[in-house]
Amino acid sequence: xxxxxxxxxxxxxxxxxxxxxxxxxxxxxxxxxxxxxxxxxxxxxxxxxxxxxxxxxxxxxxxxxxxxxxxxxxxxxxxxxxxxxxxxxxxxxxxxxxxxxxxxxxxxxxxxxxxxxxxxxxxxxxxxxxxxxxxxxxxxxxxxxxxxxxxxxxxxxxxxxxxxxxxxxxxxxxxxxxxxxxxxxxxxxxxxxxxxxxxxxxxxxxxxxxxxxxxxxxxxxxxxxxxxxxxxxxxxxxxxxxxxxxxxxxxxxxxxxxxxxxxxxxxxxxxxxxxxxxxxxxxxxxxxxxxxxxxxxxxxxxxxxxxxxxxxxxxxxxxxxxxxxxxxxxxxxxxxxxxxxxxxxxxxxxxxxxxxxxxxxxxxxxxxxxxxxxxxxxxxxxxxxxxxxxxxxxxxxxxxxxxxxxxxxxxxxxxxxxxxxxxxxxxxxxxxxxxxxxxxxxxxxxxxxxxxxxxxxxxxxxxxxxxxxxxxxxxxxxxxxxxxxxxxxxxxxxxxxxxxxxxxxx
Length: 506
Known about the structure:
- The protein is mainly beta.
- It has a single domain (about 5-505), classed as Porin (Beta Barrel), CATH 2.40.160.
- It is about 0% helix and about 50% strand.
- The protein has 2 helices and 21 strands.
- The strands form 2 sheets. The chain has an 18-stranded antiparallel β-barrel. A two-stranded antiparallel ribbon has the order 17-18.
- The longest helix has 6 residues, at about 5-10.
- It is globular.
């Protein structure tokens, strides 16, 4: 019997419809960075709420794009785990749940703006432009205790330019650059301009039975951290950041049911302003895993990873982390997916920084998800995780999260999305009070304060609806409630936000 090549084994999936690499490039709008060969894309938002088909790429499934709809528009399912082409794709839902996930090299996150349509197309690529205009009412913009007179009205226009170019059969370049203007009617210091970059370059080659992918990704992480609060001060949180990661990954498809993977990446994380330059860091990350599917319903795996962080401003202490543990996925049918992973994680910290925290972290971290498609118009999912990451004013922040999402498309072009999230954070430092920030360039005050040993519970709930007016135009209405309960009374508050947004894809 002829032995399949790695590419034949990883691409062959009878019964699914494939599209051209040019069409696959549109997935860059959704923050997808790996798109090699052929792939499928989600159906339009006017279709049923079934999750989109998984990618059929010339790579293992866990390296393929995570096919999800844009979040927050109420017209498409978002972050729904979907059946995958490769065995390790069964664990895709663990990727964004804390630091103990599967070593997956998918997209580096959305650019934060509206993705562009296909404004200009040519033989091997396209350029798109998206526009968003939102109006928000916030009853406690400065996050003061009791709300008081912290009302604000915010206007936020955003433009996003996206492009894709197929370089060869094995490589696709994607780019997305967004710029937004956050205008506050009542607080001048809350008015900000933000740059939202996202791009990637990926090139893959096969050496015998091994697939090797070289990558370079640029992303802009979420502009918030749970340690930061307003404390009633009318000063803006300028937490815009940019991260660039370069590296190489490898995948060896030992058999049709067993895959071995490995990855090395080097990251540079920088703030786009001086306010939080104390978090600027360089990181080396290694990960590896072996995944096996003993039956059509079960997949199991073992993952491990290591990270080395160096902070350039010498405020936070440098750290070294290790972790390893099993993962398991159960998919009894196409409508239900259950995934869980456990690791034992150790994070040790040096004494190179200015903070006096000498705590190290060791313990069990975990993450998981459950997705259930009730009908073609209704689906819901639960995610949960617990882990630790480098802190702000302390060595680390330990976080436990539980989230729930439900999506109901009650008519063809309109849907309702509900979200709820519970988060418990604990900072490791045992020192009370505010941190004094002194770096090489001098001493300065962070505009929004943080404390070194906060313990807080965050509750967040949102309800939104969206209507797809045309194939290029949509409108969304969202209500969001945030409650923060802290061990420090001055850091406990409630915020209600109502947002009306208009979107257009050129």
